[in-house]
Amino acid sequence: MNWKKPLxxxxxxxxxxxxxxxxxxxxSGDKKVRLPDFPVLINGQTLDNQKLKYPFFVYKDITxxxxxWEYTRALAIALYFDQEKGLQLSRGGGQLSGRFIxxxxxxxxxxxSGSNPRNRAYTATLPDFPVTISxxxxxxxxxxxxxxxWNDVTxxxxxWKYAHDMLGLELVWDENKGLNIVGGEQxxxxxxxxxxxxxxxxxxxxxxxxxxxxxxxxKSLEETPVWMxxxxxxxxxxxxxxxxxKNAGEPVSLxxxxxxxxxxxxxxxxxxxxxxxxxxxxxxxxxxxxGARFELPSA
Length: 299
Hints:
By secondary structure, the chain is of the alpha+beta class. It is built from six helices and 23 strands. It has a four-stranded mixed sheet with strand order 3-2-14-13, with helices on one face. Strand 21 and strand 22 form a beta hairpin. The chain is elongated, with a radius of gyration of 31 Å. It starts with a helix and ends in a 6-residue tail after the last strand.
């Protein structure tokens, strides 16, 4: 039997391994991905995945989000890249809110200049830089669902750990509508300052139009919150302040003794009740006590 030919091929293959180790390693890091066979939405807006310049992919049954400027801004993901630290992701990107007039949510306009046929074979690769999400280093090479790269754009796997726990996104699945990725919502309802039988009255965290003051919210949540004018809010605040003054009580002096807290010889609290350890879990530290006397209505 002639062994020279097999030995020659083995020698040639060994030489190729020595000459091209990087190319072979890169090939082994390639990941086959596919276009999703269900609709994908950003904040309720359905996307035409076949026309997106950077489409959504599916790898091992997990949807991958392209981390472009448009997507990260719409979903309030802060993205920063450093040559040494690599890619850093955290919550809080996107348009900032505030209590000022004229704010309104930006329209999300995805880039539809792409062409992504379903029958095409798509291949992504592992990024060659470190990845940190919400100050957590990601050992990307050993992750079951690693971050990937396609056409020089990094893709984030929308696992519950990354999307929900670390970046604060909501993932809503519907059999008919598909996957809705929700993020970047701006808080409107603020602190409650008054209530009556049916409604809560709240300060706004965000004012979008001139003349708006507070918000009136049905306790049953059966109605959409209603904006109150600045005049209506001001009148209600005056009533609240009058009630606060009326119910404030008359300030009185309290006396602290070795065995507790007293008012005119009457012990109100024991020493144990007013001594709280600030280091005890779940307990607040009492820094000072003030007294007020309230007149009770006669029977």
